Amino acid sequence: MFVRTKQRGTHTYLMIVENKRVDGRIQQTVLHHLGRLDRLRASGQLDALFHSLGRFSEDLDVLGAHQRGESITTRTTRIGPALMFERLWRQLGIDQVLNDRLAGRKFGFAVERAVFLTVLHRLFDPGSDRAAEKWKEHTAIEGAGRLALHHLYRTLAWLGSPLTQKEDQQGATPFAPRCVKDQIEEELFDRRCDLFSSLDLVFFDTTSIYFEGEGGDTLGQYGHSKDHRPDLKQMVVGVVLDQEGQPLCSELWPGNTADVTSLLPIVERLRRRFAVGNICIVADRGMISQETIKELEGRGWKYILGARMRRCAEVKHDVLHRGGRYQQVYPKSPIKKDPSPLKVKEVRVEGRRYVVCLNEDQAAKDRHHREAIVAALRDALERGDKSLIGNKGYRRFVRAQGKRFSIDREKVEQETRYDGKWVLRTNMDLSAAQTALKYKQLWMVEQMFRSMKSLLQTRPIYHKCDETIRGHVFCSFLALVLRKELEDRLGRKGWRPEWADIIQDLDNLLETEISVDGKGYIVRSQTQGTVGKVAQACGAALPPLLRRCRPQP
After folding, report:
1. Are 513 and 522 in contact (CB under 8 A)?
2. CB atoms < 10 A from the CB of 519, how many?
3. Would you say residue 31 lies in a domain?
């Protein structure tokens, strides 16, 4: 039974109705007409009716007592994090893969639960492993109650420990041995791949992560810091994604390893690990070098690589000066007929294939930015102010003649050729438009790194040995796997909420243990914001607002 309304003219009427299934169909029967809504409200009869009915509901009575402050609260815990991500964890088979790896090992504690706790902490409250231990005290995670800090450290060391069998080290790179976490990555891929799965196209990018401390036995080294912390030791982290944007694996190297040096060993290692036949590497311009390209072509590997427009003489003087008509790129969706701001054209130089990409919106921004720089320079020079001249962004447009400075109009004009453009080099048979769209997918990797370094705050790392460092980063990798899975499920339903909102809303989903008249109850907080959508995407059922429990002594 429930109350429904019915509109008659300008008035709303209330009635008590009942649904019954008759011959496979739902039929609704009116049990009682309560009358006009406005009159019931004015007379106070509506509130009296609900108050009277509430006396026969224990749930309403307990909830009312709790709201009036007539209950005793014993404990409040977060339930949102584990409630949703436990479902994804098990559906992706991560728990099973971990337990298979642990078969025959006697750790004396729940290692799989320790991994889940660490991954969940990366998602919701990134920080040190010491902080993870404290965080769990107020977070409901099945089977994690007895875990201590030393259990987390042992777990990370196990994930990053080298495989002991000699044959297991086949495919190791000069930078890193094969570890337990490598086997886990491979088994997770095997679980989700099918006849239609393909690794013909993979995306690869790297970043640096600095250490507070020595940085392990071999990983922590001084090198080019993308974090602008050359004073600290660092390591290089690589992430590989498949063409669907699914995280495939993570790789670590010493901090003094150049990107171009790491590319070829990683490609060879990917082929071994995931039984890849043909493969196309998509990487940004930091990966490209003539030696690398020659090696890729010598091995028959396909590639789409970003070219350095200003540093590569062939691109600067030949490719960008070639004429030709740009082709408009249209979105994949057949619904959208309007072209995107992207245009492409193909240029060949002595058999080498380039694709010049032009984003007209970005070109307008570049032009506006340059004009602002030139205007600021002009004003500074007229005032005799030389402070701007030392700035790297301004210096490239300044001509010095002894002690006299002026704006270099030739350099300003030359810079216009780069507005909104980037250049790709490829040996693929794809069209120019398809090549550009594939390269744009590399942004998925960049987004992953932003997540790993800002939201997940993998950096800075305090661990002192290589094994725990590898385990630490791998847990961040698993967090990215869960995030990607949830975002994909939400996207398939047409929902694209902000990630920060998801985390906040789930973090605010609480359960409170209370005592009323000597009886124990658990009260769930009301759902907020994105919780309902996330629950649907995960297939998770929310617990009732109120349920009985054994009262705390």
Report:
1. yes
2. 14
3. yes
Q: Which two tokens stand for residue 252?
A: 């670590």
Q: Does 345 fall in a domain?
A: no
352-359 and 11-22 beta bridge pairing: unpaired
From start to end of 243-351, where are the E strands? Answer: 247-254, 280-283, 302-307, 327-328, 342-349
Residue whose C-alpha is closest to residue 198's, from 126, 246, 249:
246
Residues sharing a CB contact under 8 Å with residue 507, sequence separation 6 or more, in sequence order = 78, 80, 81, 124
Share of the chain above pLDDT 90, in %: 27
What's the structural domain count of the chain? 2
* Residue found under tokens 């490239």: 396
Torsion of CA 223, 224, 230, 235, to 10 degrees: -50
pLDDT digit string, tens, across residues 306-360: 888 888 888 888 998 888 889 888 766 544 555 677 899 999 999 899 999 999 8
Separation between Cα atoms, residue 249 and residue 266, nearest integer Å? 11
Query: Are residues 64 and 24 located together in one domain of the fold?
Result: no
Taking only the tens place, the pLDDT of each residue in 175-207 is 678 899 999 999 998 888 764 556 666 777 777
DSSP character at residue 436: H
Q: Are residues 532 and 548 in the same domain?
A: yes
Q: Specify if 13 maps to a domain.
A: yes
Structure tokens at 225: 């810091």
Quick check: 535 and 110 in contact, CB under 8 A?
A: no
Sheet holding 2-8, edge to edge: 2-8, 11-22, 25-36
Cα–Cα dist 299/455, whole Å: 38
pTM for the predicted model, two decimal places? 0.75
The answer to whether residue 321 is domain-embedded is: no
Q: Report which secondary-structure segment, H or E, holds 74.
A: strand 72-78
Spell out the residues 6+ positions from residue 209 whose beta carbon is closer than 8 angstroms to its own.
227, 234, 235, 236, 237, 453, 458, 459, 460, 461, 473
Length of the chain: 553
Q: How many C-alpha atoms does 483 have within 13 Å on its Cβ side?
A: 29
Tell me the β-bridge partners of 424: 306, 355
The beta strands (E) that lie in 256-408 are given as 280-283, 302-307, 327-328, 342-349, 352-359, 398-401, 404-407
Query: Do 34 and 69 lie in a common domain?
Result: no
Q: What are 33-49's pLDDT values in tens digits? A: 888 888 888 887 777 76
Q: Within this chain, do residues 25 and 63 fall inside the same structural domain, yes or no?
A: no
Range of the domain at 546: 59-78+509-553
* Strand, helix or coil for residue 290: helix
Residues 1 and 34 in one domain: yes
How many whole angstroms separate alpha carbon 225 and alpha carbon 235?
A: 9
Alpha carbon distance 508, 516 (integer Å): 24
Going from the C-alpha of 37 to that of each of 49, 51, 203, 264, the distances in angstroms are 13, 17, 62, 75
